Amino acid sequence: MDELNYCSVCGTKLIKKECGDEGMVDYCTHCDCFKFPIFNSAVSMVVFNKDKDKILLIQQYGKKDNILVAGYINRGETPQEALRREINEEIGVNAVSWNYNDSIYFEKSNTLIHNFVVVVDSEDFKLKQNEVDYADWYSVPDTVKYIKPNSLAKRFLTNALQIRGLI
Ligand SMILES: [Zn+2]
Total domain count for the chain? Predict the structure, then answer.
């Protein structure tokens, strides 16, 4: 990756150096350390109700687009821990089960997004103020209709539903 040609800390031009089993890795001779690719990690969730016949879509930050619940993974957190925390914080319900769906790298924010299909314990959500403007449950066919077109959220949703034979 281009941003790794120079050290992000001191600006020295990086060289390639042998790093054990990893092979040749970018290295800063000034800082005396290897420079592995740095990127953000996030989780995104297709949230089902307990009966698995409805999916929750949300709107955030003053936009009218219907999207999936999502959030960044904190340092030291696993994706599974992050999804349980985000669901609890953003919509005020609890995840009772989760299955990995797919991952997509989003260039614009340098973020690797892991998507999970999650079942929550209640349809009675409580939105976190200032973060989620609006949320609602949709039937499975309606989610495909109403989710933001040409979005990562739509790709994740469509993939999850196709794998399960729901669309
Ligand atoms: Zn350096």
Answer: 2
Same domain, 92 and 23: no
**32 C-alpha to ligand 1 centroid (Å):** 7
18 lies in which domain range?
2-34
- 123 CB-near residues (< 8 Å, 6+ apart): 49, 50, 54, 137
The answer to whether the beta carbons of residues 55 and 143 sit under 8 Å apart is yes
How far does the centroid of ligand 1 lie from the alpha carbon of residue 102, in Å?
Answer: 35
Compute how many other C-beta atoms are within 10 angstroms of the C-beta atom of residue 79: 20
* 30-88 tens-digit pLDDT: 999 999 988 999 999 999 999 999 999 999 999 999 999 999 999 999 999 999 999 99
**Which pTM was predicted?**
0.88
| Cα of 110 from ligand 1 centre, angstroms | 21
